[in-house]
Amino acid sequence: MSAQQLVKGQNGPITATDVVVSVQLTAPADLSALLVGADGKVRSDADFVFFNQPTGPGVRLVPGRAGQPAQLAISLTQIPADIEQIRAVITLEDASSSFGRSAPPTAYVSDAQGNSLFQYSVDGLTAESIVIAVEIYRRSGAWKVRAVGQGYAGGFAALVTDHGVSVDDAPAAQPASAPVPPAPAPPAPAPSAPAGPPEVSLTKARPVSLTKGQKVTLRKDGGVALTVIRMGLGWDPVPAPKKTGFFGGGGSKSGNIDLDASAIMLAGKNVVDVVYYGQLKAKDGSILHEGDNLTGEGEGDDEVVGVDLTRVSPQVTSIVFTVTSYRGQTFEQIDNAFCRLVDDTNNTELARFTLQGGMPFTGLVMAKVYREGANWKLQAIGEGINAKHAGEAVPQLGRFVQA
Q1: I need a surface site. Which of 66, 121, 157, 180 has the fewest CB within 10 A?
Q2: Top CATH class, 208-400
Q3: Is pTM, for the whole model, over 0.90?
Q4: Which of 310, 313, 316, 311 is nearest to 267 (CA)?
């Protein structure tokens, strides 16, 4: 049976009860799924299926063909009644690349026996690195497929926030060796982030060296509130053994490690905005990302995020700073990850938090800036997560923020 060729916007009926969505392309990529209701939003973060959460209601990731991304196996009889659409999303692994640089990806819909039902060449893409390829959707009690081909210039974070993905109350699955945040000692109330050392004060005399979990109120000596701050984030690749080259790559340092700093703005546990390499400025103008560093090479800050606290929208209760490994290397290959707080009005470093040694994660939640009453505070966090993009980090931030 030959597959029906679809063009953008075209649809076709699905009579099978179990289908598989797969893609074929020449660039390394990931396939994920968003299960959305009639409003185009997920009901909860369980409706977002990706490499770190490979199963959802009626949908799971299964191994793909050699050299191709994992496939989406969909059991239509198990899809909850309030799910209207299952959107299949292709995300390029290379942050600096785009679909326009290679042949268009092709999406396939097959039945459980491997018979190809539909085929769609996702053409017309240029600068996008992420695209909704096809969607499986309900119509008058039956299931259909539609060729979508909607690219997202704003990247993965823009996609998941548009679809209502928020932070989760429970930590995502972690490797067995993952550090577990210490439980708060009774009868003290549960903190909004992992417990840690007592709060310290900022001083002009020298930068405060923060430890994991420590907090500072963002006020200068004399109690004057900070207004414009800068978060500098940096890291160093672990040196390669002599004669083997950098990570076995023949001695070239360039292009092997691509870490991305992001600032995720939240109102309670709802994502308001995400500032990262794909969107360098917050919608309210309060945060400016100075750009993407692809290697971690050189001294000092690798990426810098400026925050004007006076312009942050009143609904925003916290800003979480993450660093994620776009190509999937873990922080075992990264040394001396740090973040530092700078008073941007006079370029004075006020506080610094450094993590020594790597961890078996593809992402780090470095710190958060959050409101407490009339004050803004900074807390050093230093916890690992598995995420290659800011969007994949979002569902895992629940344990670091208040509802």
Answers
A1: 66
A2: mainly beta
A3: no
A4: 316
